[in-house]
């Protein structure tokens, strides 16, 4: 569902956008309108395109340099999180290669994440990368959890909802298999 922007928000986007990246615009927007819904850079991008607000953020990125001591110039194992990040990230390689801490934790205990699976957080807190809080589900199960809006911050509730979604996904696959015979 597309977010509806108010007149003052659109005026703010027009005023602040020249020479800034979508991420910088989103950060400024979230600070200025902190009492409203949080927006991500891709939402700012689509809002600006939809309303034909000119974008020249590439000018800022062309001259960008990494200051000494910044997160981008950090050594391996550095962690970053905060308002801009939904997940805790860990630097794993150069130049500037980051991985979600939850994925690293999963790989440490169970090996690589299987193809077509994603990790969800049972307590709803994406910064809690404890292995007891992580659960790998298929994309079909994840779709059902979101479709029925059952992503709740309750471990027992989530485990039950996952089992129901897995059964529904299995039934759908069996029906498709029978149909294709």
TrEMBL record:
Residues 102-138 form the HNH nuclease domain. Keywords: Endonuclease, Hydrolase, Nuclease. InterPro entries: His-Me_finger_sf, HNH_nuc. GO terms for molecular function: endonuclease activity. This is HNH endonuclease. It comes from Hungatella hominis.
């Amino acid at each position: 569902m597309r977010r509806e922007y108010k007149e003052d928000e659109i005026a703010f986007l027009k005023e602040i956008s020249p020479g800034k990246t979508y991420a910088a615009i989103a950060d400024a927007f979230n600070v200025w309108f902190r009492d409203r819904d949080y927006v991500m850079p891709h939402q700012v991008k689509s809002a600006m395109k939809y309303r034909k607000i000119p974008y020249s953020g590439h000018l800022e990125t062309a001259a960008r340099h990494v200051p000494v001591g910044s997160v981008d110039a950090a050594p391996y194992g550095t962690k970053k999180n905060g308002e801009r990040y939904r997940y805790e990230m860990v630097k794993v390689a150069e130049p500037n290669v980051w991985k979600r801490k939850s994925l690293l934790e999963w790989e440490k205990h169970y090996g690589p994440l299987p193809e077509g699976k994603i990790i969800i957080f049972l307590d709803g807190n994406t910064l809690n990368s404890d292995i007891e809080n992580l659960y790998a589900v298929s994309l079909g199960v994840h779709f059902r959890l979101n479709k029925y809006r059952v992503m709740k911050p309750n471990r027992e509730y989530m485990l039950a909802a996952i089992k129901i979604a897995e059964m529904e996904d299995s039934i759908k696959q069996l029906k498709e298999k029978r149909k294709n015979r």
